[in-house]
Specification:
Elements lengths: L9 H12 L9 H8 L4 H7 L2 H12 L13 H12 L5 H16 L7 H19 L4 H24 L6 H20 L1
């Protein structure tokens, strides 16, 4: 009977798989191939994570800790800008860049196998920004419209940074999105 894997190895597995995915397409990463990257069989991956998808989710969680931070509805416009940069920006870092790339790759196909993690994350971001807009004087419909547009623009800035990094200032674009939201709030309050 094989020996059970050491549970303290789970973070090391996540870190090593994250390094491997820096230069590997997600579609080329099977449990078996990732086991080879780790210098072992697929058994430790299945033992610790259950599935390839769960391992990739653990890698995304590892890489984008700030994506799960929250924005207080009464936050000022500077805090809004900092929040958007923390959640969607920082793509000059290889880890943040990989997290954004994996988010796009996973989000495009997860619904095909009944998963909805990226959809839930997207809706949480929209709800959070809508709450911010409502707290700053917008009605529900306008707050929802502005929040959806802001999240779409933030994801667009990420996409631009992934496909054309030399010509995309994602953090600057995110600060501009925050500025536009704040300007819309000032107009609504006036």
């Amino acid at each position: 009977m094989p020996r059970r894997p050491d549970p303290t190895l789970k973070p090391a597995i996540v870190a090593k798989v994250a390094r491997h995915l820096q230069h590997t397409k997600l579609e080329d990463a099977s449990v078996r191939s990732l086991g080879r990257v780790l210098g072992t069989s697929a058994y430790p991956i299945v033992y610790h994570f259950g599935t390839r998808e769960a391992l990739i989710d653990a890698v995304v969680d590892h890489l984008c800790g700030d994506e799960h931070r929250t924005l207080a509805p009464d936050a000022d416009p500077c805090a809004l800008a900092e929040h958007l940069v923390a959640v969607f920006g920082g793509l000059g870092s290889p880890d943040r860049r990989l997290a954004a790339r994996l988010t796009f790759e996973i989000g495009c196909v997860e619904s095909l196998d009944g998963r909805d993690r990226q959809q839930r994350t997207h809706r949480r971001h929209v709800a959070e920004l809508a709450a911010w807009c409502r707290a700053h004087g917008h009605c529900d419909v306008e707050a929802d419209r502005m929040a959806r547009a802001a999240v779409a623009a933030a994801r667009g800035a990420q996409w631009g940074a992934l496909v054309d990094p030399e010509r995309t200032d994602v953090d600057g674009a995110l600060r501009a999105i925050a500025g536009q939201l704040a300007a819309g709030v000032r107009l609504a309050a006036a």
